[in-house]
Amino acid sequence: MNRSASKGSTWTGLALAAVLTSTALCAPASAAVPAGAGGAAGPGRAGGTTATTSTAHERACPVAYFDLGETLVHTAEDGSTGFQPGAAAYLRALRERHIPVGLITNVPPSWGATDAERAARLRQEVDATWRGPGLFPWEDFGDRVLTPRTEAERKPAPVLWQRAKAGSGGCRVVYQAETAEEVRAATALGFIAYRTGRPHRPAFLPVRLVDLLDRRSPA
Q1: DSSP for 146-184?
Q2: May I ask which residue range the UniProt record assigns to the signal sequence (predicted)?
Q3: CATH classification of 3-215, choosing from 3.30.1490.20, 3.40.50.1000, 3.20.20.80, 3.40.50.1980?
């Protein structure tokens, strides 16, 4: 191994260790969420979600969740929407590694009676104002689009993260958002959380670090 490759490997190991250590230190003992926590419904029940795959090639672990607005998608002053810088390439890199992705995002509960109905309305709203190159890859997210069923479930309330973790099948779960408040909340619930878009740091948690989580025991 040459010196450059060795430095890259060392950085990856240190960065992953830092992320895992931060998660372990910030998560209280109560962060382990039992199956069904937060009112998560099982397969086929209204409002529920599971960690089922959206393509036959997806592996089970880890699962990478995101906030949507100003994390993956940017809304301009004229109301048009498009990808945040680097988001399209990042999602493509996760897809190439068959890493399941999901959304944990606030929308009006009145948009539908189930996650599927609210996700369909969300897609309509975003697609109607889309001006960026390409389209948002909704198909990558499958049924992992979690939205509040009531106003009380809106983030930063813990319910949506609890539902995501309960449906993860024991996999490590990642959460990425642009706000410190949401990152802290997800970390407290046992997610490996990363704040996106910060100066002098990678725009998103490096894909190679997410990839390495498949080789670690679940939290």
Answers
A1: E--SSGGGSTTSSHHHHHHHHTSTT--EEEEES-HHHHH
A2: 1-31
A3: 3.40.50.1000
Nearest by Cα to 179 from 191, 159, 189, 193: 193
Question: DSSP secondary-structure letter at 32?
Answer: P
The token duo for 83 is: 């990808």
Q: Which two tokens stand for residue 163?
A: 């539902």
Report the C-alpha gap between 11 and 114 in whole angstroms. 43
pTM over 0.70: yes
162-192 tens-digit pLDDT:
999 999 999 999 999 999 999 999 999 999 9
